[in-house]
Write a structure and sequence with these properties.
mainly alpha
Length: 89
């Protein structure tokens, strides 16, 4: 069985969290907006976005549906973050 080392696991969580945040911001939502729609606390969502918490595949699929993106984009660093950085503020 292949296992991820701690550093790789933390990097993946961080990447996923950054992409969740970018997707949320692209919708113009604040954390409490998405937390309410998703059915979690703002604090939990904050931990997800900072890569401090993991999430089940089922919940990740629900989150992707709410954000109207493909769940694989949570792990595609170039997709959401680059598009968010290139938008005018």
């Amino acid at each position: 069985m292949i296992k991820l080392n701690q550093e790789t696991y933390r990097r993946l969580l961080g990447e996923m969290g950054s992409n969740i945040r970018a997707a949320r911001l692209s919708k113009g939502w604040i954390q409490s907006d998405l937390a309410l729609k998703f059915g979690c606390s703002r604090q939990y969502l904050s931990q997800l976005e900072r890569g401090k918490k993991g999430i089940s595949v089922a919940k990740l699929a629900i989150l992707a549906k709410l954000l109207e993106i493909d769940a694989k984009e949570f792990f595609s660093r170039n997709s959401l973050i680059d598009s968010q950085e290139n938008q005018p503020t």
